From TrEMBL:
Organism: Chloracidobacterium validum
PROSITE patterns in alphabetical order: RIBOSOMAL_S8
Subunit and partners: Part of the 30S ribosomal subunit. Contacts proteins S5 and S12.
Keywords: Ribonucleoprotein, Ribosomal protein, RNA-binding, rRNA-binding
Signal peptide (UniProt feature, chain positions): none
Designated name of the protein: Small ribosomal subunit protein uS8
Chain's gene name: rpsH
Biological role: One of the primary rRNA binding proteins, it binds directly to 16S rRNA central domain where it helps coordinate assembly of the platform of the 30S subunit.
Pfam families linked: Ribosomal_S8 (PF00410)
PANTHER family: 40S RIBOSOMAL PROTEIN S15A
Highest taxon, organism lineage: Bacteria
Amino acid sequence: MHDPISDLLTRIRNAIRAGHSKVDVSYSKIKVEIVRILREEGYINNYKTTGEGVKKTIRIYIRYAQSSESAIQCLQRGSRPGKRVYVGVNQIPRPLNGLGICILSTSQGILTGKEAYQKQIGGELLCIIY
């Protein structure tokens, strides 16, 4: 697997399209941080890590409204291994005029665009979610 973040986003996107309530993805520290932000922002219900060593996985519980519509409408990858996208403080995107979030990899860790703007730091744009 060349791009684990794209794999995470694609698995979530496919689970939503299939109507699944949960999805399992392989474990990595950056994936856990992205999923933690999704939970804090209310896009997923919860997550938990299971297994040990090489077989460690993250189980993500997807949030649906009563009309069986997912809380996540769009998952877009920002930076790719072939084309890195870096943004400064003034170029941090605001999806849907602030209703969506963007996730950045900064020198202070994985942050949302709003947190990075408050701390006045830019970074690599990982993904945009709304």
